[in-house]
Sigma-54 dependent transcriptional regulator (Metabacillus rhizolycopersici), 459 residues
Amino acid sequence: MNPAVLIVDDEPAIGSSLRFALETDYDVTATTHIPEAYELLSKQRIDVILLDWRLGEYNGLEVLTKMKEIQPQTSIIMMTAYGTIESSVEAMKRGAYHYITKPLDIDELHILIQKTLEHQELHNKIRQLNETIEKIKGYDQMIGKSQVMRQVFSIIDKVKDIDSSVLVFGESGTGKELVARGIHRQGKRANGPFISVNCAAIPEALLESELFGFAKGAFTGAVRNQIGKIAAADGGTLFLDEIGEMPPSLQAKMLRILQEKEITPLGSTEEKKVDVRIISATNKELLRMVEEGSFREDLYFRLNVIPIELPSLRERKEDLALLIPYFLNKYAEEMQKPLPSLSQEAYKKLQTYDYPGNIRQLGNILEYAVAMAKGSIILEQDLPIAIQNEQEDSSLIPAEFVCEKKVIEIPINSTMKEAERLIIESVLLQCEGNRRKTANMLGISERNLRNKLNLYRQD
C-alpha cells in the first residue's frame, strides 16, 4: 500500500498537475475545498499533506493548525509563491515539516516527500518503542510480568506509603536497589531524599563516620562538622545495601536508630532526631548469621518487618522476552548504533543460560553483544565467549570464580569455631590462596573472609 498524499490548493490546475506527477508512487487525493480536506483527515489516515499558503478566504497557517489537531501524526509541507524567512519559521512553529516555494521542482518535491516519510517512520518507531517499554515496566523502573515478579510488585504497592522497615533478600544482580528506589519514588516520601549506602564498599573504619557524621575535632583530619548519610536522609529513605556486612560495633547503633529515631555524630554529645525510613538489602542468609552470632537478632527482627524476596533471573526466565529488547534498545541508543535484532542461535543461547549474575549479568552480556555486532543482527559469535561455550549444565558458576570441591575431615570433638577455622583454611589452601575463589566457595563476602583470617592470626 502506497503512502497517502493529500494536496490542498485553491487552484484546480495545480492540484491536478501535482496529482499526475505523484500518483505513480503515492495514493494521491487533491481538493480545493478546506472543509473537504478536514473531512478526509477525520476519516482516513493521510501521511503527507501539500498545503498551499493562500487558500482564498482561509489562512494557510490556521488550516495547518487545525489539520494537526485532527491528525497530529500527519506531516505537512507548506507551498507558497511568496516565501520569506519569517513565514517559514512561523510555519515550522505551527507544526509544518518543511516549506517549499512555487513554482515547484517535481524532482525536489519527490525527494522532500521521501525524506518526510522517512522522518515520520523513524518518529513512529521511537514512539512505538517508548510505548512498548512503558507497557513492560512492571513497577517504576522494574521490568517483568512473570507471576513471581507480579507478587513482588504487589507487595511494593502495599508498603510504599507506610514507614515500616523493609528487608530485601536476593542474589547479587537481581535489582534490590531498584526495589528500594521504587518504594521511595512511588510512596509518600518521594519528595524527600533517597540515600544509598553500600555497607560492603566502605571500609569498616570509615563506615561509622559515613553513616552518623562527625563533629569538628572528633579525630585527626576532622577539620569541620560533617553530616552523615542518616541525617542526609531525614524526611526520606535510607537504603542500606549489603546489610550483612555491617560490623557488630555498628549494629547496636543502628538498632538505636530504628528504636529511638535519633543519632549522635562522632565526637558530639548532641542528639538529633531523624525521620527516616530504613530499607535494607542482603544476599546473605541473615538468619544463619544470627544463629552463628555474627548478626544481632534484635536488629534482624527490627529490619525484617516486611521481607521482600527477589527471584533470581533463572526463576523468571519468561521475563527475558521483555528484558532482552529493553537492554538492546538501551545500549544501541547509548552507542548510537541501529537497534539490532537477535539471530535464532543467539536468542537460544540467551534463553538457556542460567545467569549466575542475574539481571546485571544479562545487561553486561547484551552491552557486549551490541558493541561487537557488525550489522543489524547479533550473531552467536557476538556473545561473550563464556555464553557461546555454555553447555547444558549452565547453572555452574564460571570456572575463574570456583575451585575444585574436596572432602574435609573434621575431628568429632571439634568446637564450632575450630571446625569453621579448619574449613576456611582448607578451602583457602585448595584454592591456592585465592581469596575471591575461597569466599565464593564458602558463600561469604571477601571482607568477611578477611576478618576471619585476621582473627585466626591473632589466636
User: Anything to note?
Assistant: Confidence is low (pLDDT under 50) at residues 392-402. Residues 31 and 245 are 75 Å apart (CA to CA). Residues 106-136 form the longest helix (31 residues).
